[in-house]
Specification:
- By secondary structure, the protein is an alpha+beta fold.
- It is built from two helices and four strands; from the N terminus they run E-E-E-H-E-H.
- The protein has helices at 48-58, 87-100; strands at residues 32-35, 39-40, 46-47, 75-78.
- It starts with 31 loop residues before the first strand and ends in an 8-residue tail after the last helix.
Amino acid sequence: MQAAHIKIEQPAAFTMLEGFPETAIKKNTPDFILDVSTHFGKGKQVSYQVVAQWVVDAYKSQGDMQQNHAYIGDKETFRLFDINDDSAITKVTALFEQLKNAGFPVKE
C-alpha cells in the first residue's frame, strides 16, 4: 500500500531582491494567497490557471513562464512592497475578499 502524497505549499521566503531596495517587502503585513486551481464559470471549465495561460499567450515573450518553477503549484502568494503606502493593506485585503465572494464557490 502506498502512502498518499499530500502537497503542502509554503510561500517562498522573500524579503528583498539584493541590490534592488524597491523590492523590499513591507514588514508585519499578511501574505495574500490566491488558489489558482479554483475552477469557475459554466461547467467549471475555467480556472485562474487558464486565465494566466491566456496572458502568457498574449505576450509571447513571456512563454518561459509556462515552465518556470515560480508557476508550479496551486497557490500564488502576493505581498506588499515597503514602498506601498499603509493604506494599501486595506485595499488589497478588500480585493482578496472580493475574489472570495465573486459568485463562485470557494474550493474546500
